[in-house]
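During the reporting period the student researcher (J.K.) took over the structure-prediction task from the postdoctoral fellow and processed the backlog of single-chain submissions. One of the processed entries is reproduced below for the supervisory committee.
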Amino acid sequence: MVHVLLVSGWQTVNIGDVAHTPGALAAFRRYAPDVQLTLWAHQIDDAVRRLLDRYFPEVSVIEEHLQPGQQPGPRLAAAFDQADLLVHGSGPNLVARSEVERWREHTAKPYGFFGITVDPLQPYTASLSRSATMINSIDGDLLTAADRVLLEGAAFIFCRDGLTRQFLQGQRLGVEPLRFGPDATVLFDFVDDDHGRAVLDEFDLQQGFLCAVPRLRFTPYYKLRRHQPTATDLRRAAYNAGYLQSDLAILRQGVISWVRATGEPALIVPEMSYAMELAEQELAGTFPDDVEDRVHILPRFWDLTEAAAVYRRAGAVLSMECHSPLIALAEGVPALYVRQPTDTIKGAMYHDLGLGDQLIEAGPTAAAQVEQRLTKIAEDRHAAVDLTLQARDFARNELQRMVHQSIAAAGTSQ
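J.K. obtained the following structure tokens:
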């Protein structure tokens, strides 16, 4: 039996980051049921622990931060000794760089990356097509020495977007396989309906409503983590202010068009914990009279299980965050992703999944595009769902291949 040590669980202020972990666990359990799984959690909270206890009771969870040169505690030492493979879960970069380095320090066993983005262009802000041109023009080494060591030492690298794959192939890492591999969020499809009952009852939602997810161009992490803002934080806050109204106008127009086209209500919900304050301050009371009574704002942050169970009943999801459409995809629900240019190249994953038409770049024509595509979803729901299910089936097939290739890497070391 192969024993996999999964490193995941990046933060809990974002349900998208939470979803990586159960998605990856579900992938290994579904496609390699004989594998023994241990989770080495980077950062989780009580809500995530309850999720894991309920749906993955067989998975042992270790929450230990190990400094360079420090000896691991008994449970982590046992995991290092017993595990055959370390898997870095889906994420926006090499989030678990430290954990992978500790694995290399204490073992000689293989490791790999399971659906990651490596964006060489930050902090540049551009559309995905312009980003592709820039990445194609890179001529030279843009990886730090430490990241190159970790990536070159990997047994496999699965890139969750084609632009990351293009960049890393150009960096000549010599790793095989180095290929596309979906974000594991697309397998978060197993929660019970009862998780969403309180939200559905609170707003008297039945079936076919719209969920809309707002976002600032830069996440105000200094507020979420309660530290004094740096000069960069202040610049980003100013940038947010400059685009706030024009960006939210895109979301507002989508909500208006859905309510008018379908007669169904809309629920504004968060992917990140700051989003509800944003919605209350900037969206409440800003809708036309014929729509206002049909628009609701969830007044609190919610957890991933609530979101998935509510999205399951939605007619569509309209999101300025990247991962709510993936959670909807896992449930077979059509979704649109409005990408802001300050978001990373991860959005290219929608093209890789065959959902390029569901991705809209924020800009002067975005509101009209959102209205047109939401109307199309409302008028031909069968076609929209069919496209969603095709993308989901493709993602599942790719995840199955990822799991099998990961297990094969572990097998070569035994």
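The committee noted the following: The chain has a mean pLDDT of 96.
J.K. will present the remaining backlog at the next meeting.
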